[in-house]
Amino acid sequence: EAQVTQNPRYLITVTGKKLTVTCSQNMNHEYMSWYRQDPGLGLRQIYYSMNVEVTDKGDVPEGYKVSRKEKRNFPLILESPSPNQTSLYFCASSLSVAGETQYFGPGTRLLVL
Amino acid sequence: QKEVEQDPGPLSVPEGAIVSLNCTYSNSAFQYFMWYRQYSRKGPELLMYTYSSGNKEDGRFTAQVDKSSKYISLFIRDSQPSDSATYLCAMSSYSGGGADGLTFGKGTHLIIQP
Fold first, then answer.
1. What is the pLDDT of residues B44-56, one digit of tens each?
2. Distance in Å, alpha carbon of A7 to nearest chain B alpha carbon
3. Which 3 state secondary structure label does DSSP give A107?
4. What is the distance between the alpha carbons of residues B63 and B76, in angstroms, rounded to a whole number?
């Protein structure tokens, strides 16, 4: 089954404690991205990757890092989480960089205390 | 600019009605137009995408793009309670030299009353 998986699905942490949210896709997609979704603000892109070792900033990259060492994986790293990073995070992948066939993961709900 | 405008609703209609959902945008470079459906506590699910202007139909769903007016629509015929969800429009431009990423509307919350 074609899918995008994320782990963990729920996470409560404290300010400053580094964390990683993993993302994996089994569709051999080149393009992957991370979004955060907040009430009243909608979906906003954090980072995207056009291929292995190629990443770039989206609209709200501050406080986040990503890496793309393998085609299937695209982890999101919060080096020093802060309460304003409390959000619902989605990983997505698509065959094309235009994103017209983008598939989303189930989401990771993060609470930073 | 990348702004996409979408009425947040909620939009409440009786079962069986035709639903019209809309987005407007300002960036004339957008070429790909998508509609996503998102159920509560789930990830967005791609419903349809259209390249450039025109109509596209898939079952009860029809997507329309009017690039001259910078206006896109999603029509749902014979609406069902299971259609109750948040509908997100999204669009992108791809120049071939890099990716601008998808720009999303904030979503319209749709309620189909049985």
1. 999 998 888 889 9
2. 14
3. coil
4. 9
pLDDT digits (tens, 9 = 90+) for A96-106: 777 667 899 99
Query: Contact A56/B45, CB-based, under 8 Å?
Result: no
Written as six digits, the tokens of A66 are: 């990503």
B102 alpha-carbon distance from chain centroid: 13
A1 DSSP β-pair partners = none
Q: How far is CA A87 from CA A14, A29, A59, A113, B44, in A?
A: 14, 26, 15, 12, 15
Helix (H) or strand (E) holding B63: strand B61-66
Contact criterion met (CB < 8 Å) for A100 and B51? yes
The pLDDT tens digits of the residues spanning B40-91 come to: 989 999 999 888 888 999 999 999 999 999 999 999 999 999 999 999 999 8
A54 touches chain B (CB under 8 A): no
Amino acid at A21: V
Closest CA to B85 of B12, B24, B30: B12
Closest CA to A79 of A65, A91, A69, A89: A65
CA angle A46, A24, A52 (to 5 degrees): 70
Count of alpha carbons within 13 Å of A81, Cβ hemisphere only?
21
Tell me how far apart the terminal alpha carbons of chain B are, to the nearest angstrom.
40
